[in-house]
UniProtKB/TrEMBL annotation:
Organism this protein belongs to: Probosciger aterrimus (Palm cockatoo)
Name this protein carries in UniProt: COASY synthase
The keyword Plastid is annotated on this UniProt entry: no
Pfam families documented for this protein: CoaE
A GO biological-process term: coenzyme A biosynthetic process
Length: 243
């Protein structure tokens, strides 16, 4: 539940930095760096441990460790509390302590590495995938990028277009799910169709197997249209882009 966990450095890099720090502080120090796969790690099972270093905000965690150790028949650890360094330059919305969460906040909007050139992909237009759940701000970001000159593709609109009579998925969807999904005017009743697939993984997969390839094909057509218009950047706004 860390803030901006997507920007946390990879485990291997964090271990390398920790090892460099330990060797710099005291080269003769014996240490063991352990990957934590649960909230406690080896602290509640290792009988050789004697002390746990905590901060004021993690003291409760230390006390929870000792409770678990006692339940496991192990002696409680001495809790050595250290003060956290204060950040004199923190902003109003950042933590007062020196914090990796604050550092990740400051990284937002920073180009972490240059765009990777893939020889198999055309250099123009440069296609940016914009994804995230409902309410995450995709539409606002897409609108801003559009104002800056990007060609914006709204996958949700294409998703509606594939269902209309004469649309690329219309006949197959009706053939698969039956005429009862139709309104009186022949258009697909999305609510009835949704009720048919909701909670049924097999039916949902049948629907996405029909619809998603057609949306992907329409996206590619739109990218070609962006190229024809001479657009340098194309933004694909899609809630299920990765899927």
């Amino acid at each position: 539940d860390k803030v901006l966990m997507e920007l946390i450095e990879p485990y291997e890099l964090r271990v390398a930095k920790l090892r460099e720090f330990l060797e710099d502080v005291k080269p003769s120090l014996r240490y063991d760096i352990v990957r934590l796969i649960d909230p406690y790690g080896p602290t509640v099972t290792d009988p050789d441990l004697q002390c746990l270093v905590v901060s004021q905000e993690t003291r409760q965690g230390g006390e929870a460790v000792n409770k678990q150790r006692l339940e496991n028949g192990l002696p409680a650890l001495a809790l050595y509390e250290i003060l956290l360094m204060q950040d004199p330059d923190h902003s109003e919305n950042e933590e007062e302590k020196i914090s990796s969460s604050s550092l990740r906040h400051r990284l937002l909007g920073t180009l972490l590495r240059p765009p990777r050139q893939d020889p198999a992909l055309p250099s123009r237009p440069y296609v940016i995938g914009l994804t995230g759940g409902t309410g995450s701000g995709k539409t606002s970001i897409a609108r801003l990028l559009g104002c800056l000159g990007a060609f914006v593709i709204d996958a949700d609109k294409l998703g509606h277009a594939v269902y209309v009579p004469g649309g690329p998925a219309y006949k197959q969807v009706v053939a698969t799910f039956g005429a009862e999904i139709l309104h009186g005017d022949g258009t697909i009743n999305r609510k009835v169709l949704g009720a048919k697939v909701f909670g049924n993984q097999e039916r949902l997969k049948s629907l996405t197997d029909i619809v998603w390839p057609e949306i992907a094909r329409m996206v590619k057509e739109q990218i070609r249209e962006a190229e024809a218009q001479g657009k340098a950047v194309c933004v694909l706004d899609a809630a299920v882009l990765l899927e």
